[in-house]
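Project outcomes to date are best conveyed with an example. Our students and postdoctoral researchers have been running inverse folding experiments weekly, and each run begins with a structure described purely in tokens. The record below, which covers 649 residues, was selected by the lab manager from last quarter's runs and is presented without edits.
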């Protein structure tokens, strides 16, 4: 007890001295937040703890504070038992999470006639989500982050596939977790430039600085005894959201609670937005607009729904997210009367009497939210129920019967999005969510507008459009008209977190490869790799082209680089196996193909190459087994038919 008391005393002494300071007059220019400068560093939530212990402790229990952490029993909300098995009927694969001590694993397996013919076990590194609605799961392969193919849905207490993995779309262990995903579900990570999903460091949850901005200057000032008397002045070394204009307050929330298709402004990335900025200066967020029928919404697009509410519109933006929510206190710990009091502040009996039938009101305990922010599912995430943040009078049953008609995309946070941004929005929506030709048709209309101001971004968007249309001839013609050397040396030169120029180079390379112009294709693949060295898809494409051109030594070096980065990159094992086959190193080839098939039992090229190895080894029985597996995946596969002829089947 004595030791505990001393430790507690020591804690308070440390806090006292860390926060001891002399209030000074406001030393800053009015309205200039110093931490908006991109040279100011983030310092992490622990640096805030000493002076803000009460907020620190309460925030750590909120949904945001619990958003992300290492995978351990304490973090996980999942109830895992021997019957916690997911089955994918499309791929005939099953998934079973399990614990070993405090470490979470996922087993992928396939049973045929009761026998296990495939098993892959993957350690899980992180749990995403507070557990209020879901827990999803991330694993690292090397330093590359991927989503695992299972999610625990807390409200129903069940496992199912993550959104986008269902209905035959199970991408297994290949969904990359890029900066866009990580930067909303977590504090800002140390992301590796020139990659899609490689990280030097991943934090452990959304922290104070996501709402207050980077704290380097503020912490230095406090440690130096410099503090502004905030009862009289604004401290411009750190952002206090309530000091901001109402629209800038809302932009902080909208950065992550306006989920949709995010189109970054030229020169911006997912690090660019800092609290106190205008979101419109960093990105436009697009959502599909519908007319008629039953409304639905994205789970985390609270701002989009709120912005349609008369409470928001009629208040001239005096009503916003923090009118109801205290970001430092969990919604679970907030008394329900707090929310009702916000409603009654404008809708008291003396001002605006509720017109609902008294019996219905009594049944709902006069709960405004029950009627006007009804709970429902979301269109993007299954098995969840959330309050609709469009505060409104429930529609009549008759109005819900009308047809729901798609009217186009809108930039929710920007009613004046320019034509090039609109085009990029439609392209990204097509590529990411809705591969419907009408999105490409709309993109083309906006691409033809005369006021498209950014030549480089317009060129990149045109290439992307033609690529999505599979119009490789148009890409080749456009590239040749601008000049191959000019594009390579003067236009595609930017290394940034979006990899925009690298993707354009990659797409042009694919177009020239499709036209069998392998020399020019290699120039563009090499440019893509120069700009985004750690995009392993680009590396693999370059290595494959080296094989086509007979540059085997160069190709082998590329595939070994990939596997040094990510030893579970299946295609690199397949391609190395192919090289070993042609070097007549049959045993090495078989070993590499077996590694590929252990990672992906249905990899068609690995199965075909292994069948060729077994044919070389004159193992007819194994060739027949492999042909059977190939034809289950790809009936009437021409290479399988050729193998059949070679063995006399």
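After processing, the design step wrote out the following sequence:
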């Amino acid at each position: 007890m004595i030791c505990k008391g001393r430790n507690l005393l020591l804690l308070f002494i440390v806090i006292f001295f860390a926060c001891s300071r002399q209030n000074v007059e406001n030393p800053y220019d009015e309205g200039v937040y110093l931490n908006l400068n991109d040279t100011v560093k983030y310092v992490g939530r622990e640096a805030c703890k000493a002076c803000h212990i009460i907020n620190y402790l309460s925030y750590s229990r909120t949904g945001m504070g619990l958003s992300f952490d290492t995978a351990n029993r304490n973090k996980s909300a999942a109830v895992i038992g021997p019957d916690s098995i997911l089955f994918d009927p499309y791929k005939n694969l099953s998934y079973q999470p399990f614990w070993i001590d405090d470490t979470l694993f996922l087993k992928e397996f396939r049973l045929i006639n009761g026998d296990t013919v495939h098993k892959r076990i993957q350690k899980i590194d992180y749990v995403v989500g507070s557990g209020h609605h879901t827990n999803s799961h991330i694993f690292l392969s090397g330093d590359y982050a991927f989503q695992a193919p299972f999610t625990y849905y807390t409200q129903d207490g069940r496992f199912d596939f993550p959104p986008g993995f269902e209905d035959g779309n199970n991408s297994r262990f290949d969904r990359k977790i890029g900066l866009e995903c990580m930067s909303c579900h977590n504090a800002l990570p140390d992301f590796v430039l020139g990659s899609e999903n490689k990280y030097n460091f991943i934090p452990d949850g959304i922290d104070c600085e996501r709402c207050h901005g980077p704290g380097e200057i503020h912490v230095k000032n406090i440690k130096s005894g410099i503090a502004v008397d905030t009862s009289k002045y604004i401290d411009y070394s750190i952002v206090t959201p309530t000091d901001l204009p109402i629209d800038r307050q809302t932009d902080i929330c909208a950065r992550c609670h306006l989920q949709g298709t995010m189109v970054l402004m030229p020169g911006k990335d997912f690090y660019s937005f800092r609290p106190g900025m205008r979101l419109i200066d960093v990105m436009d967020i697009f959502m599909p607009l519908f007319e008629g029928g039953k409304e639905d919404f994205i789970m985390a697009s609270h701002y989009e729904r709120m912005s349609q509410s008369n409470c928001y519109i009629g208040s001239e933006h005096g009503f916003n997210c923090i009118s109801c929510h205290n970001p430092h206190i969990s919604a679970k710990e907030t008394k329900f009367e707090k929310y009702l009091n916000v409603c009654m502040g404008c809708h008291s009996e003396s001002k605006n009497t509720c017109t609902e039938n008294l019996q219905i009101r009594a049944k709902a305990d006069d709960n405004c939210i029950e009627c006007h922010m009804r709970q429902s599912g979301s269109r993007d995430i299954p098995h969840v129920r959330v309050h609709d943040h469009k505060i409104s009078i429930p529609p009549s049953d008759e109005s819900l019967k009308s047809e729901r008609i798609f009217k186009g995309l809108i930039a929710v946070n920007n009613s004046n999005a320019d034509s090039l941004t609109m085009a990029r929005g439609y392209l990204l929506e097509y590529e990411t969510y809705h591969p419907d030709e009408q999105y490409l048709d709309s993109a083309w209309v906006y691409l033809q507008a005369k006021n498209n101001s950014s030549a480089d971004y317009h060129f990149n968007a045109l290439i992307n459009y033609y690529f999505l249309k599979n119009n490789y001839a148009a890409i080749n013609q456009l590239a040749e008209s601008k000049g191959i050397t000019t594009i390579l040396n003067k236009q595609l030169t930017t290394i940034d977190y979006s990899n925009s120029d690298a993707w354009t180079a990659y797409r042009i390379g694919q177009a020239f490869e499709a036209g069998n112009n392998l020399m020019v294709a290699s120039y563009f693949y090499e440019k893509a790799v120069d700009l985004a060295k750690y995009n392993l898809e680009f590396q693999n494409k370059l290595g494959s082209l080296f094989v086509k051109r007979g540059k085997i030594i160069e190709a082998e070096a590329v595939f070994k680089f990939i596997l040094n980065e990510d030893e579970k990159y299946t295609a690199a094992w397949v391609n190395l196996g192919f090289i070993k086959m042609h070097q007549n190193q049959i045993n090495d080839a078989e070993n590499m193909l077996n590694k590929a098939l252990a990672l992906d039992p249905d990899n068609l090229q690995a199965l075909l190459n292994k069948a060729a190895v077994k044919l070389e080894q004159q193992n007819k029985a194994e060739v027949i087994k492999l042909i059977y597996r190939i034809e289950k995946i790809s009936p009437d596969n021409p290479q399988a038919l050729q193998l059949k002829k070679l063995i006399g089947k």
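The radius of gyration is 28 Å. Residues 418-646 form a domain with the Serine Threonine Protein Phosphatase 5, Tetratricopeptide repeat fold (CATH 1.25.40.10). The training component of this project remains on track.
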